[in-house]
Every structure is written in structure tokens, then in C-alpha cells.
Amino acid sequence: MKKVLVLGAGLVAKPMVVYLLEHGFQVTVASRTVSKAEALIEGHENGKAIPWTVDKETELSQMVAEHDLAVSLLPPTFHVMVAKACLENNKPMVTTSYVSDAMKSLDSEAKAKNLVFLNEVGLDPGIDHMSAMKVIHGVEAKGGKIVSFRSTTGALQAFEANNNPFGYKFSWAPKGVLQASKNASKWLEGGKIREYPGEELFENYRMEVVPDIGTFENYPNRDSVPYKEIYGLKDAQTVYRGTFRMTGWCETMRNIVAMGWLGEEALPGFSGKTFADATRHLIGASADGCIEEATAKFLGLKPYATVLKRFGWLGLFSDRELPADRDNPLDWMNVLSMEKMALGKDERDMIVMHHEFIAEYPDRKELITSTFLDFGILGGDTSIARTVSLPAAIAVRMVLEGKITAPGVHIPVSPDIYNPILDELSNIGINFKEVTTTL
What we know:
seven-stranded parallel beta sheet; 16 strands; single chain; seven-stranded mixed beta sheet; 16 helices; alpha/beta; Rossmann fold; Dihydrodipicolinate Reductase, domain 2
């Protein structure tokens, strides 16, 4: 029986652990909080939960040595540490995160040791790569070329759960989403590079109607330009990857960024105790004036602006005391977000992924759309958990069964990787709807 080491027992881990146990693997889940790992195993005879923290690198190497493959569901900064333990012990690994430069630098060593290091095999990145490449290769096989590519994903609450002023709920820890709100953006549009710093991210959104689903805000996701090469889109004049949100999100987050509420450093000279004190400090307002009016003036908004109502609802103007164990605006914001914007146990989340391709053939031009809609299961797994961890679980199975063998640091953009994973996902209800229209 093959043995799999899963590092991390976070909110997306359960579907992977269940899948691997059901397919005859022995699974060890290592987590700082062992009770979370035990909850994933649920007493299965082939499952084991053990306590482990990331500062114990010697124990990590020992654990990796005792297993046939390691999966890192840890924060991305720790993936390279896991990869080095895998290299030391000649074991393959799988992650769902973007490949960092540090991970790329291990490619030659992984190849020399004939080890598969498969990354970006979750939802986004992951399913987005695989579903896009299937269409791209299909067009090329018919003698066509892709001249425009747009791909956007949203991890959202289901429509019936869209009932707070922010139009957003977290089905996992908010901090990552908040940090991503400061990312710079870059993409290719009509043959020209469009590039904006992080503070302008939410100024560059558009409204998009996804057929048969709804209308969303669409803003750029990091740097899309490398995907022209990664996806082999040599003829594409537009290459864009974006993020969907419910309407109102971008304007609200633009103003949160402008106020400094996503800063990760302690505030110099700040001695206040409440969220209102922090807001006043960030915008340079006096302690005796109306905080809503001062915020409106600082942001250049009308006093009745909806954005201000959202800030009030969240608690940024409140006399609630700041968390004593945190010392910066981002962490304070994280606490409020977790309390007021968490997905309820009786609510579903929703994944929307939508690709748009313009394909040119010698005799015609086509618009191809490929769309995926998925909902969480009430009382069961969230959609984000299923769509992040199941592709990775399938990849683990394929590596251990010898169906993925190309050594080195990879992402799932080749048919020998994405076709069997997409086929298996289809068998468990994760499917895309493709529509082709002649232009």
C-alpha cells in the first residue's frame, strides 16, 4: 500500500484525504493542530494524524522518508522547504500553489533524481490551466490558432447567501484574499501591455455577464503576460486572467486600500485602542470630529456613499477594542472579516470559472466559451475545498500509479497530465460547458 504524507489540515484538505483513503492509499496528515488532522481521518484504519510544526525540519525529513509522496497544503512560503526534504529523500511531491522562482530553481535537481514535482494543480491555479489547455490544443489540432484568451475565476458565496453589504463571504481564512488585494496587475490587451500598481488594482475592473449565471465585477489577477508562453499562445494579442466578485467589491476594496487598512506593519506613533481610533489615525482625523465625515473627505466621497455604510457595518468606525494580540491594520481587518463575513454552516459557496477564446482558422473565426459553475454541499464540503483538493488528489494517485512520470518542476499544461485529471473530475461532477459561435 502506497503511503501519502499530507502536510496541513486546513479548510481545503478534507476532500483530498477522503479521496486518497477511498482509493486504497495510506494517508498521514501532519498538522500543528492534531485535532484538525484527526477530524479529516475520521478514524479510518489507513489514516494517521500526527502533530507537527513547520519549525521542525528534521522531523519533516523523517516523515517524508517514511512515505512515497508528500503533498504540501502549507502556506506557499514553506513549499520549497518540503521540496528540499523530498529531494533529500528521493520522493515526489504535489502542491496546489503557484510555482515560485525558488521552486523553479529545483527543476534540474528534480530531473536529475527522476522526481515529479507537480505544482498548481488545484482550482486557480489548476483547473483553470487544464480546462484552458484542452481548448487551446483542440483548436490547434484542427488547424486553428488562438488570437485572444481571457480566463476569470471567482470563489464566491452562492447567490442565496449573498446577504451582507460587502457582497462577499469567506469559506477559508480571509488574510490571503486581503493580501491579494494589494497585488500589481499586468496583462496583454490588443498586443499592448497594460500594467498597474497594486494601489490601482481595483480601479481597473469591468462588468461582465457570464451567460446563464449572472453579472460580476472582473478585475485582473496578477501578471497574465507569462501565460502567452506558458500556454503556447504565440498568436494571441490578448492574454488576460482575472477574478470575479459581486458588484460593489472593487470600489469598496479600492477605498480600504487607500485608507491603509491592509498595511502589514505596526502604525508608528499609534496609541489608540479601538477600531475607530485606528481609522482616525490612518486618515489623519481629529478625535473629536465625525469619523464618517472625515473618512468621506479623505476618500473624496459624498457623506452618504454606500462605501461608508459598508465600513460602518464592518466595524471600522466602532468603539470596539482592537485585538490585543495583533499590532497591524491587516491583522485587525482580518479579525473583523472572519467574524462578520464568514460563510455560515447553513450556506453554500460557489465557484464560477469562465474562459473566452477567439480562434482563427483559414476560413473562419470563432468565439469559444468554456464555463464551470459549482456549489458547495450543505452540511458537507465547500466548493472551494472540492475544487482545490480533488485535482491534487487525482494527481497524487496518477503519480503513484506511474501515470505521471515526467521528472522536474511542472504545472498541468500537457495532455498526459490534464486529460486524465479532467476526465476523473468529470466523473465526480466537475464539468465545463463549451459553446462555440462563428464570428
